[in-house]
Every structure is written in structure tokens, then in C-alpha cells.
């Protein structure tokens, strides 16, 4: 891991990975989507159960991506690795997109099940807080003319925001909420029928690989951007000297 903190080594190692990740993610997304439309209707939820195959991967990745962002912020604050800052910055947009999609699909799923688009229960509220943390990180990161100061301030926020992750995960266990308890990862094994479990696992794998493809591509782009800025700064100093 610390070896990959070297930007040159990171660029060399990840170069052959990005293309295959995009391809495999696209194939699994296509397979999972077709499979999701072929599963039987749920006895109580009918066709709305198919939202499961978008909502659950999006919500899970919203949490996982923020965890990667927070850990990257920790490494940046401790070791001042520029690549850690680039990794945190690259995680913001896909993380916010996944979390926003989870909120939207949750509302679409909740309306026919609960009779309302939104309730201020613990799970929904903590997910909204997670989305706002992504937005706050992006805003704070760009609020400084000095990129170093912006990176440090945003990293502190990103690290503090990790406190919200266990709240999101265990909110359905700690409080009485409308949101159903965990059905995939829980003590005693999953409660999902195999007809729904396997296509869901395919979709979750596809979305994870999609995130990795987006993340690595964004980090590599950020490394190139910083190199270009460094070259311009050096040329500007040479022109002045």
C-alpha cells in the first residue's frame, strides 16, 4: 500500500487494470439488469421489489465509498501523501452519486410500501447526513485558493464524518424505524430468497467494479492534472528568473 503511494508506481500498476474493470463492470451490469427483470414478483411488493437491485447496491456503496474517502483523509493528514488526497477527492463525486441514488430509489420504494415519500426516521436521516457530508467535503475542498489548505480542511471534515457510518449501518437496530432491518448481512445468514439473492450479488459486484473503475480513472486524471500544474508553475518560475 505504501509502495503505491508513489504516484509513478501507482500510475504504472493501475494502467492495465482500468480497462478490464470498465469492461467487466459493464458486462455484469447488463447480466444483472436482465436477471433482475426476470425474477418473480414479490407476493406483497409486486414489481416494486425490483428497486432492490438498484437501491441496495447504491446504499452499500454510499457507505463503502465514504469509508474509503475517510481512510484516504486519515493517511493524508498523517503522512501528507498527495496520492491519498487525490484518492479522497476522486471518491467524492461517485460517493455522492451513489448516496443520492439510494435516497431517490428509497423514496420510490417507500411511497408504495409506506404511503409516503419520506419519513424522518433514523436510517433515512443518517443517509441524508451522509449525502450532505459528501457535498460539504466538495464545497470545503474548493473554498480555498491554496489547494493545500483546502485539502487539510476537507480531510478533517472527511475524517470526522466517519462517525456517521456506524450510525447509518446500525440505525435500524438502535432505534425503532420504518426501514426494514438488514436482510443480506445479518447474524444467522441472509433472509433473502435465492431467486433475489443471486442477481442482487451480481449487481452489487457490478456496481463495486464500476466504482473502482471510476475511482482509479479519476485518481489517475488527478495525478496528471497535478503534474501539468507543476510543470506550468516551474515554467512560470523559469520565465521570471
From TrEMBL:
Q: Where are the transmembrane segments?
A: 52-79, 91-110, 122-144, 156-175, 195-218
Q: Write the protein's name.
A: Heme exporter protein C
For this chain, one GO molecular function annotation is: heme transmembrane transporter activity
Q: What is its membrane topology?
A: Multi-pass membrane protein
What family does the entry list?
A: Belongs to the CcmC/CycZ/HelC family.
A GO cellular component term found in this entry reads: plasma membrane
Record-level GO BP terms: cytochrome complex assembly
Q: Which Pfam families match?
A: Cytochrom_C_asm
Q: Where is the Cytochrome c assembly protein domain?
A: 12-179
Q: Which organism is it from?
A: Brevundimonas halotolerans
Q: Does the keyword Cell division apply?
A: no
Which locations, inside or outside the cell, does it occupy? Cell inner membrane; Membrane
Q: Which key words tag this protein in UniProt?
A: Cell inner membrane, Cell membrane, Cytochrome c-type biogenesis, Membrane, Transmembrane, Transmembrane helix, Transport
Keyword Cell inner membrane part of the UniProt annotation? yes
User: Briefly, what is this protein's role?
Assistant: Required for the export of heme to the periplasm for the biogenesis of c-type cytochromes.
